[in-house]
Amino acid sequence: MSSPGKIFNVEQVTNKDQVALETTALETTAAEARLEAPNRVVARQVEENARKEKESVEQVASIVKTLGPKYAGEPATAVGQFRGDSDSSKLTSTKSAAEQLQESASNATNTAVAESKHDVEDAKGVASTYVESYVQQAKDLANTAIETAQTYLPTSREEALKENRHPGWLYKARRRWSQESQSGLGPGLAS
User: Fold this and answer.
1) Position 22 pLDDT exceeds 70
2) pLDDT-based confidence at residue 74 (cuts at 50, 70, 90)
3) Is the CB of residue 23 less than 8 Å from the CB of residue 54?
4) Are residues 17 and 82 in the same domain?
5) Distance CA 140, CA 148 (A)
6) Which stretches does the entry tag as region Disordered (predicted)?
7) Number of structural domains, the chain?
8) Angle (CA) 55 56 58, round 5°
């Protein structure tokens, strides 16, 4: 009689067992390389490289595991097929996990670039609207200032004479101000 996890009374190899075997093989190979190293410095370098490689493999394995069976290359289960979890790309996929990860990252990058371009175009549109608005406000302000100034200026020589402002009125006003400034009392304070 067979037990769960056994086939014909022989332990079934699981993914954990396979990783353990590969890790053991890696450690064994590293141990052999350490023993064959010509000196302690090289032996330490071999040991450090083996440790880094082991950490990298474990990190990649955990990432692939979190991504699910699509990237891990595990076959679809009957329950998954019944639920509709499996599609034909899972069953006939010939891409490696690294290729699939690279393709996924490329797609994500392309999507992000497209969204960024769209955001930049939106920002340009908003900015140009604001710039046009500010330019129009500046034009309106300048026109208002000109119109206001024109109401204070005489339109003709006859009008200037009516207001006792003959063509030399500005010259006389400047001269008077200059004299008052020189007296030390300031403009409008001289008697």
Assistant:
1) no
2) low
3) yes
4) yes
5) 12
6) 73-119
7) 2
8) 65
Among candidate residues 20, 3, 24, 21, the one with its CA nearest the CA of residue 12: 3
Residue 190 lies in a domain: no
Helix, strand, or coil here: 73?
coil
* Structural domain range at position 175: 116-181
Please tell me the distance from the alpha carbon of residue 99 to that of residue 56, in angstroms, as a whole number.
Answer: 18
Q: How far, in Å, CA of 150 to CA of 165, rounded? A: 16
Separation of alpha carbons 164 and 177, rounded Å: 18
* pLDDT at position 1: 47
- Using DSSP's 3-state secondary structure scheme, residue 68 falls into coil
Where residue 6 falls among pLDDT bands split at 50, 70, 90? low
pLDDT reading at 88 higher than 50: no
Q: How confident is the model at residue 191 (pLDDT cuts 50, 70, 90)?
A: very low
pLDDT at 145 over 80: yes
Residue ranges of alpha helices (H) inside the chain are: 15-36, 40-67, 69-72, 78-83, 88-92, 97-152, 157-162, 169-182
pLDDT of 126 strictly over 70: yes
Please check whether residue 32 lies inside any domain of the structure. Answer: yes
